[in-house]
Design a protein that fits this description.
The chain crosses the membrane at residues 106-124, 136-163, 175-194, 229-255, 275-294. The protein is mainly alpha-helical. It has helices at residues 2-32, 46-55, 62-74, 89-124, 129-143, 146-160, 173-202, 205-212, 217-229, 231-255, 260-269, 273-301, 303-309.
Length: 310
């Protein structure tokens, strides 16, 4: 019990330190970039400029701004938005986070539901025509970036075939193209990873011995090979999440989805410091939490990992 408490305390401290370093680096880079949040207000009188700077604490020294912002964050206040003056960053994040979480979660689920069976099928047909065809398609899926995939999907399914809407939000049909655009590269990577891991597992000595004892290939696959073969896939979930998060900025812009990625892009373009910092912090915290869950999942799948952290 004490060992487990020590491990989790260490993880919590590491997570807080990571988020602090991430927020500090983002704060410094934003302030170092040329331009400011109210450059579009150049025609305003000097007293208006001064009032805006005082309202958003931009008239203080940089270190004082950082300390005040950090104190607000510690209290759970991400501050006011410069670009959306009628909303706080907390309100914008509360609106956008469920949208991005739904898109990203469905994209990862689709990647697993398609990638794992395709990888298993390719491994069972290793070296044959089906295996080569699947891996060729998977290679194409990895090679084509999301900013190309998303417009192509719009052109095919929305403009040409008129099957699905080209953008917007509010009904299930709006989800299909963004989720597919986010999922396609992950489907390809998951299939390739599953294939390679399963081929290695199937050649293990203990499976050869089980095969020699007369166990059927189906039982070997589902009872003995699949679970250890999926350990690399479980470890891949963390970078897959990061891939989905980074790709969501492009996909949400293309499809006009009011998610975290779109707010991040708009905030960066308009020097909305608090909005960008709020999105970075929330996304960073989500990634840290997902990493913890993935570690727990890997420990459940492989008892050796539990023993190593006990």
């Amino acid at each position: 019990m004490k060992a487990a408490l020590k491990v989790w305390s260490g993880r919590l401290l590491e997570a807080l330190l990571t988020l602090w370093l991430l927020a500090t680096l983002c704060f410094v880079l934003l302030r170092a970039a040329p331009g400011g949040p109210f450059d579009a207000e150049k025609a305003a009188p000097p007293e208006v400029q001064a009032a805006l700077a005082q309202q958003y604490r931009l008239d203080r020294p940089l270190l004082a701004q950082y300390g005040a912002w950090l104190g607000d964050v510690a209290r759970g206040d991400l501050g006011p938005s410069f670009q959306y003056p009628d909303y706080t960053v907390n309100q914008l994040v509360a609106q956008a986070l469920p949208v991005s979480a739904l898109n990203g979660g469905l994209a990862l689920l689709l990647a697993l539901l398609l990638g794992i069976p395709l990888g298993v099928l390719a491994a069972l047909r290793a070296g044959r025509t089906l295996d080569r065809a699947l891996m060729f398609v998977a290679g194409l899926g990895l090679a084509v970036p999301k900013f190309v995939v998303a417009p192509l999907l719009v052109l095919l399914f929305a403009v040409t075939l008129h099957w699905l809407p080209a953008g917007g939000w509010g009904e299930w049909r709006n989800l299909v193209l963004p989720v597919v655009a986010l999922a396609l590269p992950n489907v390809a990577y998951c299939a390739r990873l599953t294939r390679a891991s399963l081929l290695e597992t199937l050649s293990a000595e203990y499976l050869r011995a089980a095969r020699a004892r007369g166990l059927s290939e189906t039982r070997l696959l589902f009872a003995h090979a699949l679970r250890p073969a999926l350990l690399p896939v479980a470890a891949w979930l963390s970078p897959a999440l990061i891939n989905v998060v980074t790709g969501s900025a492009v996909v949400e812009q293309v499809f006009g989805i009011p998610g975290m990625g779109r707010y991040f892009v708009q905030g960066a373009l308009n020097r909305d410091y608090t909005l960008v910092l709020g999105v970075v912090l929330v996304v960073g915290a989500a990634i840290v939490a997902i990493n913890v869950l993935v570690d727990a999942l890997r420990g459940w799948m492989d008892p050796r990992l539990r023993a190593a952290t006990a």
